[in-house]
Amino acid sequence: MSTADTQALELSALVLGAANTLVDGIHSGVVARGFDDLRPAHGFAFARLAPDGATVGELAEHLGVTKQAASQLVEELVGKGYVERQPHPFDARARLVVLTEQGSACTRAADAAAADVVRPWLNQLGAKRMRALRDDLAKIAARGHLRPTW
Q1: What is the b/e burial string over 2-29, where b = at least 16 CB atoms within 10 angstroms of the residue's CB?
Q2: DSSP letter assigned to residue 116
Q3: What is this structure's pTM?
Q4: Distance CA 129, CA 15 (A)
Q5: Where is the signal peptide, in residue numbers (predicted)?
């Protein structure tokens, strides 16, 4: 294996490790803020539903699951009070899944938890290196398609 291949494997493991640290830290922070009936997968759904909602089909596509699985997830979140179904404003046949106030509060808690997780990285790397890391990741990371690995 070449040095470049070895470095690529090491980098991929480190990026995945950082992602796991972030997901685990956000989940712990959300639980600590009183939202202890959710799993990290719910947060990925909330990321798609905020701020304007989505259909079950759009949510399924975002999460990379079947419509049936997304529908079951929505049903669970409705039962817990985090989302509600509303008439779609442009399609009378569709229903829009939107966050309730409880769901929005959980999303705010997740944002605060994410900041708590990343803050030590800033302290460890320093502002200049942190900006460089953010800028480099922005060049290579896909944006807007956050989903769990099942």
Answers
A1: eeeeeeeeeeeeeeeeeeeeebebbbeb
A2: H
A3: 0.87
A4: 16
A5: none
Residue 57 has which token pair?
């089909």
Half-sphere exposure of 55 (CA within 13 A, CB side): 14
Per the structure block, which two tokens stand in for 148? 């769990």
Write the CB contacts of 94 (distance below 8 Å, at least 6 apart in sequence): 55, 88
Residue that is written with structure tokens 């099942």 in the block: 150
Length of the chain: 150
Read off the tokens for 97: 């899944």
Specify the CATH number for 3-140; select among 1.10.10.10, 3.40.50.300, 1.10.10.60, 3.30.56.70. Answer: 1.10.10.10
Token pair recorded at residue 109: 């808690």
- Residues 126-144, mean pLDDT to the nearest whole number: 90
